[in-house]
Amino acid sequence: MSSVEFRKDLFADERDDNLNEIGKPTIRQDIIGHVTGRSKFYDDHLFDGLLHMRCVRSPHHHANIRHVDTSAAERMPGIRRIIRPSDVPHNINTLLALINFGRDDEQLLSAGRVTYKGEPILAVVADTERQARDAVAAVRVEYEELPHVLDVEEALKPGAPTVNAEYPNNSFDYHDLYDHQKLRFGDTQAALAQADHIVEGTYQMSPIEQAPVETCGAIAAPEQNGRYVCHTSTQALFFSIGVTAKLLDMPSSQLHFIGGTVGGGFGGKVDSHHEPLAVLGAMLTGRPVKYMWDRTEEFRVGAPRGAERWRIRDGVMNDGRIVAREFTGFFDSGAYTRLSSYAIIKGTGHLPGPYTIPNVSSNVYCVYTNRTPATAMRGFGITGVDFAIECHMDKVAETVGMNPIELRILNAYRDGDMKAHRRVAKNCALIECCQVAAQKAGITLSPEAMAASSKEGGGIGWRAEVPETAIDDMGRIGDRRNREIPPEPYGGATQRGSVPAGTRGEAVVAAEVQDPDMQIDPTRVGHAVSQAVGQPAPPTPAPQSGAPIPAPVPAPAPAPTASAPPPIPAPSAAPPPQQPAPSAFAEPGAPAQPQQPYKPEKPFQRGVKRPGVSRFISGTRRR
Amino acid sequence: MSITVETYPTLREAASAMRDGTRFLGGGTMVVRGLNFGAQTYDRVVRSTDAALRDIRSDGTGLHIGAGVTMAQIMQTASTDFLAPVARAVGGPAVRNMATVGGNLFARAPYGDFGTALLALDATVQMADGQSLAIETFYAHRAGSRGLVAAVTVPRPASGAFRFAKITRTRPKGASLLCIAAHLPGGTRISGARLAFGAMGPTPLRAKEAEAALDGAALDPAGIQRALDTCLNGLDPQDDALASAWYRRAVAPVHLRRLLLGEET
Questions:
Q1: pLDDT category, A502, cuts 50, 70, 90?
Q2: What residues of chain A lie within 8 A of the CB of B41, using their CB?
Q3: Which residues span the domain enclosing B23?
Q4: Are B3 and A296 a contacting pair at CB < 8 A?
Q5: Domain that includes residue A381, residue range
Q6: Residue range B102-131: mean pLDDT, rounded
Q7: Angle of CA points A211, A216, A218, to nearest 5°
Q8: Nearest residue, CB atoms, B40 vs list A137, A294, A296
């Protein structure tokens, strides 16, 4: 059934071939629904009285908003609500705030200034989609156009217009220190000076739209008890809940998100822009609201894989050994951070590709430009630079007159080699991949290349060592605003320091581990919530009636290592041990009194308000 | 804005109902798509059930094709066999079932492949008011036109004298990066050549200098060289999501050469 060939002869001793799934062809679990057209996507959920949302968008790359006149739009038939930036309770966020990375820089609806073409400034909610579109066209916005910048290197120049107010230097701040992510391993400059050949190349990637068949969107509707249900196309359901809770300043327990069926995502459905707007629309109108991009929006304002520019400089010996590799990378993040800052960390960990090179350095920039913000797409942070690296390997092979496959085998990493990010390589397989690929393509390799193995020759001598490393402190945050500094590693440095051989650096820990007792710590929720939220409810009076409600569950006893101080100071409002905790936070396995399932006094009928079900839902398009 | 649709039994009545904010609906592949995307320039749609719109017949000057004839009909009719490859190049089966000859004359780049072929064939456009226009004149005044097209009259080319190539990024349903229609009468020595380019300007355009350069020429690499050198003169390609104007200019002579030499495009 499958054209996949499993090469069980390779690495047989490193693998258990008796696993049920790994190493075996498998049928995806949702395929029956998809091929028979029965899978339900978010837009297949039908709601009575559904309203439609459309956004008013910036026609300019960069402009101040002088005046917004919605009077004509408000008078149009079917218009239920025009949502303004001031209607968003906490109108600032950055996607990675949930993992404590980066600062809030993006508004859900932008007030004051727009920084890319298509940036939303208002949302219109109307009875029909056509009415919403007509009202959007009737909104009059007066803009004051500002100079814009669309090229990553232009944006880093001292006089470039500031794109993102939170990062006025047009580059993400790494580690509160530099305007780029550094990687230093050995001394590339010394090695380049001794190399037989210097091979240079510049590689430019375009933005790539994920182009899902199902455009991004969400439908939100009021449920009971102040809750909102949201059917969404998101690829990251809990991410979307967190973002929505933060932007709307509400506890996530009031959000009932339903996803799981994504009509093509590929990274383009993690930005969580639709869910907060749809839920906000439902909150402000009390009706179900659908916010769905059309195809044009999907392409124009849907965040793509960002464009990348890479410059690579290799020092190569006549025999094909690469002794130094220097990278200068620019990620075009667009107007906001989204996931680009993180893509660079990922990409830097990947350098210099699957090769063992004794001297590696890189400067990688997350640059803000007046372009559509970039986000995730399949292997983002890696794919672009891999394209550059592999093009460059061919260029190196051409320079030294070698078969490009043999050049790769010669320089490939092997088990036990030290990688530039100071982790030891293991389970390497590039050599074997090259050998099999050459065989399939009918290319004859030299006996030495055919005899090479990922399991042999690695981790010996210099290959296992972290070398003495030359460092510099160029490119501190804001420096490039004042004067031009060459972006290359060590660029502009007059004095350099060095780190002794064997030094591995410090592990960067983004988020603290959760308390062992799993009590919710308000400081760990990941976003600011109102004072009242996130604190335990006051003790409820004992129920007077005999209704079988779930009994409060006692909090678990303190952990055996109670003598050690807890890793995080307990919030002052945390309940003391033994006091009943809110049952929602209890461990599922904790002993509880026997619970009776909830029984209504009268049996439910269709159309009757059922707890936990939106009173608007009237069916689904597919059964 | 609510949308109104009005249906008239004859094209003449439909033509007199046309005014600002109105579009005539042929097959709907452009008009309905516009409505779906909230087009703000029209909210009134006029259509006609006139059976004459679907006529295909031979008359003294050539083949008479009603404006309402669909691409699928062109492909199925024996007398329009020379246009079948052009009709097949338009959209996918669903589009071809609806898209009409008349509508194609109003399609903006990168659409309008069928009109490009009609331009190379020196077709005549019959307007609903009885006026008869050379297709080149029709295209030159299309932007300001409000008239409806009743039919086109196409002279039948000699066997093998008409060639058409559509260059797309995706097959079979991609829109044109460009398309080229060539009418090359004269057998071994070309005389009276017509070269029309689609998606190389706001409307399909003729490359007249290249046409003149082909006069008396043989279809071999030396014979067509001057036509290739001059084929971009008078064309006005634009940037769009499919290709830049630069790219279109760069590849147009290459595809013209392949078409003229009978190589695979």
A1: confident
A2: none
A3: 4-48
A4: no
A5: 152-208+304-400+468-499
A6: 96
A7: 170
A8: A137
